[in-house]
Amino acid sequence: MCNTVAVTRARWTTETTPLPPHALAWLSRRVGLGEPLPEVPVEAPAPALSADAFTALEAVCAVSVEPSDRLGRAGGLSYLDLLRHRGHGSLAVPDAVVLPASPAEVVEVLQVCVEHDIAVVPFGGGTSVVGGVEALRGSKSAVVALDLAGLEALVSLDPVSRVAVLQAGLTGPEAERLLGEHGFTLGHVPQSFERATIGGFAATRSAGQASSGYGRFEDLVESVRVATPVGEWVVGAAPASAAGPDLKQLVLGSEGLFGVITEVSVRVRPKPYGSRYEGFVVDGWEAGVELVRTLAQDGALADVTRLSDVDETEVALALAGPRADVVRKYLRLRGVRQPCLVILGWECRSRSATMSSLSGKKVVRLGRAMGASWLHGRFNGPRQRDALLDAGVCVETLETATRWSGVSQMRDAVRAALVAELGSPVVMCHISHAYETGASLYFTVLVPRDLADPVGQWERAKVAASGAISRLGTITHHHAVGRDHLPWLEGEIGTIGVDVLRAVKARLDPTGILNPGKLV
Amino acid sequence: MCNTVAVTRARWTTETTPLPPHALAWLSRRVGLGEPLPEVPVEAPAPALSADAFTALEAVCAVSVEPSDRLGRAGGLSYLDLLRHRGHGSLAVPDAVVLPASPAEVVEVLQVCVEHDIAVVPFGGGTSVVGGVEALRGSKSAVVALDLAGLEALVSLDPVSRVAVLQAGLTGPEAERLLGEHGFTLGHVPQSFERATIGGFAATRSAGQASSGYGRFEDLVESVRVATPVGEWVVGAAPASAAGPDLKQLVLGSEGLFGVITEVSVRVRPKPYGSRYEGFVVDGWEAGVELVRTLAQDGALADVTRLSDVDETEVALALAGPRADVVRKYLRLRGVRQPCLVILGWECRSRSATMSSLSGKKVVRLGRAMGASWLHGRFNGPRQRDALLDAGVCVETLETATRWSGVSQMRDAVRAALVAELGSPVVMCHISHAYETGASLYFTVLVPRDLADPVGQWERAKVAASGAISRLGTITHHHAVGRDHLPWLEGEIGTIGVDVLRAVKARLDPTGILNPGKLV
């Protein structure tokens, strides 16, 4: 055994995408560029793990205390995480990275950590934007990042029942490749798809871009295998059951507080023969909301159904380059005053059902090029954040969901809160997930970074926006709670709800080693 | 205040339907008739409620200690319940019936019961077939039935978001009438529809006959208002959320152990313009399973999709009277050797999607008369049980769900277990709820009653069948756990699962007054 292991997936290896010139020009004109933030070198402190604990962990699986490995698991990908990695704000660095290679080894790691009173932060793709993987130690003397990269198998596949068992450390693309060899797909494609993992999807109730077609991740899960400090728990199995409360729903969204998800049994579908994406434009936000609501309530949603508000549409056109002028002119000719872009994509659902529900509605078709353009760029957001930081721009996202009757009030309230706090930010909004009873709202905020207090600038904006969000809907539709949404959870689930979570936690993790400082 | 209240919904008022002559003839030939069970008069014991407790309850709401009211809430509608009400087996009779008229009064009743250490059995329609409303007192000195009939309002309706708030005591028809006035339907029609209540649907994870179209009851619920001994809890709200585990899923299926559901916020749909039901026949069970699986995995299920095995089809034809001979002849002409009836009904889903998925399959259409006949008789099962008892027949049902790859193995195993225990029963089986990954299996058992030991006869058969069921699937797909399925729950959810339920129970009901002896 040695203390430097082959760490197969380091945090900072993802390529970042530079901003094209026309995007920089738009930013300069519309948002305003700032000075690049001075980078303060960040170093990993000496690991606080005792020699005994290290030896005990090493007897189970690979362990690393290398600074680069530990820094690579220090937090996720929120704006504040990015600032911390540039030396602004306090970065929590795990004392070691452990890399179990099987569900049984995960159980053993937890036993060692209970014995040595070490905090454990389960770590998948490290894509949390809510502080969900911050290496907080709580009351413990040390904290380890439990990297699940070694759990990367397709364990089994039942092609008749269309159920696959996937290990928790598989990333989106890895899972799709393994399923694809058998002609199946999971169809779960959130923006974090390229790096996020099966275990992370389950632990955070992830929603993919095509969730209108394939379902949210929790809808895809048949059962979960969880390593807890009190032993292993397999929960769920039958296609549907009335055998008491659905306890797998207690594990889904538990963010590593009750145990470490090691395997997930999921519903899979045959790979679609082809896909089709199209762009449309409606005149005004309200007309767009009405349109998406009709599709949702008619059961006629496309697999991907997105509505951008006027501001986001303007940005989409601006970033589309020279072609945008042609589109703008065409829309003017068609009498569209407040263009709102609608992207519809069909992977497995019927396009004809959508189109027949659209018939008679005032919708301008932009065709497949606009759809292809969205598809091409759909993972770019996270990749461009470093480039935006370099350009002196504060960029972050917020999201929620609420009933149809409250969608526009929510959008107005969040915008107002952000404007009140940030001066004149660019606030873009879209609906990306629609349900019969309501929809998600996703906000992207761009504002020149406050050089003197970049951390405080966003923290204050987040508090203001979250106040509006929690008053009118859920504090999070698909980003999870983590550390950042914790102050608003009690308002949403009640004191009793928090107490119930604590009661479950006390039973499954009696010494409180698992992911301290998150969720509750 | 007085101690005899207007008890608006007594247990034994439902009309029972007599068996028509041709049904009796078939029973006599195929099952064998027995002697009517001698009825032993059943009396309610003197109520064990203290005068202080009675006074305290009466200060909150109406209370009755009348024997007829108490006997009317003594258990549900299982075969064993029916035997108990005829004097065979031990009938648990509540010491009083309390009738709160609002969610606040329910909270107050619970506080009084905590103070006086009285067990509380929430009582809706009293249609449990698993002992879910047995008036067990556990370690308490008295037990009251908390009848929710007074909570009967449509509290609110958001027609844009299509969400209604219904009180827990509304029966299926009452809820439909109130929603129907606004053009909406819940679409939840289990066999217990006529008497079962909204609160009961939620507390037991009920599945309606049209759940392929409208969804299982838990899929319809947006939020739940629960009165617990530690206060009121409203859980759920947003159309979708990642704010931690979905805690409403912990209340759904909790069978009154964590609290009393007082209001449920549900998804509603526009009332369909019309419905259409048709009968089809396939040749053999395996072909039928394949057909229903294809419909489920193609997303082409009818709202009601049912497949009967050969034995159930034979009974359906026998009970259809003289018309059956014509059908049998037609099926022989078409070369069908092992007719299995398929009933498809469309309320809100597209018939054309189903029919196009059926195209090319070997299916004989019987037309709308057979569909109408099923629709006409779909609530008859529970109504005819008293008549069957009078004819000396033991009749009971069992149900489960499992993956498609295990459906036929499950059917064979349950039949074999019943035959081994009961000699030569008639065992009928159908699939009534299909999912992408599997289906429910519903068994109806008919056998001449053992006059010497009618209770033991069924208890032994239940144990034998449940052993097979729990080995191959869930112990219950939609009947819930209650008292009768309790021995098999730990095998399904694990020791950890049971401990988690106990931890939640200890937090919400620290003195253990709620529904003792059920679920865990």
UniProtKB/TrEMBL annotation, chains A, B:
Its cofactor is FAD. One of its GO terms (biological process) is lipid biosynthetic process. Keywords: FAD, Flavoprotein. Residues 90-271 form the FAD-binding PCMH-type domain. The active site is at residue 442. Substrate binds at residue 385. GO terms for molecular function: alkylglycerone-phosphate synthase activity; FAD binding. It comes from the Bacteria. InterPro entries: Alkyl-DHAP_Synthase, FAD-bd_oxidored_4_C, FAD-bd_PCMH, FAD-bd_PCMH-like_sf, FAD-bd_PCMH_sub2, FAD-linked_Oxase-like_C, Oxid_FAD_bind_N, Vanillyl_alc_oxidase_C-sub2. FAD binds at residues 122-128, 255-261. The record marks 306 as: Important for enzyme activity. SUPFAM superfamilies: FAD-binding/transporter-associated domain-like, FAD-linked oxidases, C-terminal domain. Belongs to the FAD-binding oxidoreductase/transferase type 4 family. This is Alkyldihydroxyacetonephosphate synthase. It comes from Lentzea xinjiangensis. The lineage of its organism: Bacteria, Bacillati, Actinomycetota, Actinomycetes, Pseudonocardiales.
